[in-house]
Amino acid sequence: MNATVSPSTVSGTYVPPASKSAMQRACAAALLRSGTTILHNPGNSEDDRAALDLVTRLGAHVAKDESTITITSRGVQPKEGQLHCGESGLSVRMFTPIAALSSQELTITGSGSLTARPLDFFDTVLPQIGVRGGSTAGKLPLHVQGPLQPADITIDGSLSSQFLTGLLMAYSAAGARGVALTVKGLNSRPYIDLTLAVMRDFGMKVPRNDNYESFVFGDSVPTPAKDPLHYTVQGDWSGAAFGLVAGAIAGKLEVTGLDVFSEQADKAILRALMQTNVALSIREDGISVGGQAGGGGLNPFHFNATDCPDLFPPLVALASCCAGTSVIEGVHRLAHKESNRALTLQDEFGKLGLSVELQDDLMIVRGGTVLRGAAVSARHDHRIAMALGVAALRADGPVTIEGAEAVGKSYPQFWAHLQQLGASVSLTG
Ligand SMILES: O=C(O)C1=C[C@@H](OP(=O)(O)O)[C@@H](O)[C@H](O)C1
Ligand SMILES: C=C(OP(=O)(O)O)C(=O)O
User: Fold this and answer.
1) I need a surface site. Which of 43, 104, 168, 192 has the fewest CB within 10 A?
2) pTM of this prediction?
């Protein structure tokens, strides 16, 4: 599908979708408890659907109605030997240790960009916790046979926090006691805060976090959550970052449905917006962004995105409209996402005439000149598609984004939402 976005202004109220990071964690936590969980504001992205399919195959019963999803479980009891993670990095990395709680032999597969993403972490870690199997030359498919036995181990947290998320959940469900997960060089730290928050909300045993270097499971026994457990999935700061940037560069929006106290990493978009001097008001019941007092331009910004790497694409769209050079740190975190995002941002924004320079860990974006209308590609990456769609609002002519359906991975309603805000978007093919 192609999306053609013509220069437009946006206005009105914007409500982002449910966070797939929160939704996938909630699915895992619902699988791990004995009882019934009712998810309110459930997500419907491709990654969310992959997680729901995984919990079904791992033994839970999933029932959907118009506004909720009910998951009934008695813990991990696989019904199938094959697990499919779609394209979701979080699902494969979180559900692999969870699946290995069972003693059944399981094969874990995925599709698209996930088949190229690194999983060799499991080859060194699984044998230390009683799990046989591992990856296929560092990639999918994975083969595992548990049962996983929590032990004191040291892991590398620099490539991705998602492996640690899975281990924390699996250790907790296995009743870990008197053991510690030691982590070297953890990146994407707020995602671990989100994991621990979901575990707490689901009445799971939560380890002590010693400065993100050690997670210690003590002797305490958690109080089980009430049954049925009602859980509301938070609005998505990662998706909302695109809406907030659209408001900042091309109009004025009122954003609701976000928890301003959320643990989500991408809430940090607010810090970058503040540096640009955009008119911004942050309240518990909503955020208004855009419509600069006095009509002034946006200032460039310097932002470290090492712990919130998914913000790079919306930040590049924002930087394209700032008068001067913006610098984003943390480029090394981008190599193994749905695409190598440093290079795809450079190539695709380059077609719009934007200079994106890569210098070691820095991305240098020279904003301030009007983007030109052109044909670009989403490169099978949802966040690249959305960043191009938002930047196109301020181009000098239509921008056609090929492969626009990529948004389905995290935000299927993205193009419809942009249209509802008044943007000219036509979808073809
Ligand atoms: O745990 C999560 O929900 C995620 C963690 C981050 O990955 P890394 O930990 O690999 O940086 C992020 O990029 C991804 O989109 C979602
Ligand atoms: C990288 C992403 O997700 P995941 O790693 O879960 O596939 C993303 O949503 O940008």
Assistant:
1) 104
2) 0.98
- Residue 31 shares a structural domain with residue 157: yes
120 is annotated as an active-site residue: no
Provide the ipTM. Answer: 0.99
Is residue 27 within 8 A of residue 218, CB to CB? The reply is no
Q: Looking at 192, 207, 232, which one is the last position of a domain? A: 232
What is the total count of domains within the chain? 2
Contacts of 179 (CB under 8 A, 6+ apart): 150, 151, 152, 171, 216, 217
Q: Do 182 and 114 reside in the same domain of the chain?
A: yes
**184/302 same-domain check:** no
Report which of 120, 119, 191, 129 is spatially closest to residue 154, judged by C-alpha positions: 129
Tokens standing for residue 290: 């855009």
Query: What string of DSSP letters covers 252-304?
Result: EEEE-S--TT---GGGGHHHHHHHHT--EEEETTEEEEE--GGG--BPP-EEE
* Chain Cα centroid distance, residue 147: 29
Cα–Cα nearest to 25, from 120, 91, 116: 91
Calculate the CA 95 to chain-centre distance: 15
CA of 314 to the centre of ligand 2 (A): 14
* Residues 64, 168 within the same domain: yes
CA of 179 to the centre of ligand 2 (A): 29
Is the CB of 237 within 6 Å of ligand 1?
Answer: no
Shared domain for 290 and 423, answered yes or no, is: yes
Residues 269 and 391 in one domain: yes
Residue nearest atom 3 in ligand 1 by C-alpha distance: 21
Interatomic CA distance for residues 352 and 421, integer angstroms:
23
Instruction: Write the pLDDT tens digit of every residue in 136-191.
Output: 999 999 999 999 999 999 999 999 999 999 999 999 999 999 999 999 999 999 99
307 and 169 co-located in one domain? no
- Domain that includes residue 43, residue range: 20-232
Q: How far apart are CA 360 and CA 348, in angstroms?
A: 20
